[in-house]
Design goal:
This protein is α/β, with parallel strands linked by helices. The protein has a single domain, classed as TIM Barrel (Alpha-Beta Barrel). Helices cover 46% and strands 12% of the residues. The protein contains twelve helices and eight strands. An eight-stranded parallel β-barrel has the order 1-2-3-4-5-6-7-8, surrounded by six helices. Helix 7 links the parallel strand 6 and strand 7. The longest helix is centred in the first third of the chain and has 15 residues.
Length: 295
């Protein structure tokens, strides 16, 4: 389950007053990704705008996604929160709905101590039976899971993986060292580091760019598995063309617009306060898509 290319899907919204969830577009996006060969669907992550989605919406969205996927690939659901109580409540509900695994981000805004991070994950893991993926993204949370804390967490039965989006090679190496002495899997969350991570011992990637350039990511993983270094290097480099456009807007506005302009699915805008992109930015995104021969 914790290997290959797992897509943290954008959450499709309608262009209505409420920016309500677009379930038709959700199904289009998921069908596209599964057809392209991704190894899992991950919802309510950073690209999925979990931070601007109400709890009731999260539950409804997860229920529909689990039904659409229908066990064809594993469904990972993000349930992390600033409060342990909220994260436990949401984790229990997602387990009840049939999620295959949970992804739990560290608390954000505050900067908890290592023992508080440990207790947070331990209490959430003990509240459910399904596997837990820890999610480390210090640039967004201000909080890093240390190697020492991970060593302790790896001893908890249903903590099975960690997604590292730190972009820090030393952090990644430390996690992989822990994984070698446990049954923990490491998943790369920084798309520019997929090849490096795999060669160090990571099992795969939760790769946001696979929303748009799915073939590149799926073929990169295949090349890495078959030790085709030349092809892997080319595909890894190709990811940078998309990544270079992402700073043109606030996350995940560029990614969502690229999905739309590539005619994959009408996933709509990012939720307010993030604004729609300009026509000038649209043209830059189209130029990027032409590089991949998507349009």
């Amino acid at each position: 389950m914790f290997e290959g290319i797992i897509t943290p899907i954008v959450t499709p919204f309608n262009r209505d007053k409420e920016q309500s969830i677009n379930y038709e577009a959700t199904e289009q996006l998921i069908e596209h990704l599964i057809k392209k060969g991704v190894n899992g669907i991950f919802i309510l992550g950073s690209n999925g705008e979990f931070h601007v989605i109400d709890e009731e919406e999260k539950i409804d969205f997860a229920k529909r996604v689990i039904e659409i996927v229908n066990k064809r690939v594993p469904v990972f659901v993000g349930t992390g929160a600033c409060s342990t109580r909220e994260a436990i409540r949401l984790s229990k509900k997602m387990e009840e709905l049939g999620a295959d695994a949970l992804s739990v981000i560290t608390p954000y805004f505050i900067k908890p101590m290592d023992d508080e991070i440990y207790d947070y994950f331990k209490e959430i893991a003990h509240s459910v039976k399904i596997p837990i993926v820890l999610y480390n993204i210090p640039k967004s949370t201000g909080c890093n899971i240390s190697k020492e804390t991970l060593e302790k967490l790896a001893k908890i039965d249903n903590i099975k993986a960690i997604k590292d989006s730190s972009g820090n090679i030393d952090t990644l190496k430390g996690y992989i060292e822990v994984a070698k002495n446990s049954d923990l899997s490491v998943l790369v969350g920084s798309d520019s580091k997929i090849s490096i991570g795999y060669n160090l011992g990571a099992k795969g990637a939760i790769a946001g760019t696979s929303n748009v350039i799915t073939d590149v990511l799926v073929n990169l993983y295949k090349a890495l598995k078959s030790n085709d270094t030349e092809v892997a290097n080319k595909l890894q480099s190709d990811i940078d063309v998309l990544r270079a456009t992402l700073p043109l807007g606030t996350v995940p506005s560029v990614m969502k617009r690229a999905v739309e302009l590539a005619n994959i699915a009408p996933v709509g805008p990012a939720r307010k306060p993030v604004n729609e992109l300009s026509l000038e930015t649209d043209e830059k995104i189209k130029e990027m898509l032409k590089y991949y021969k998507i349009i």
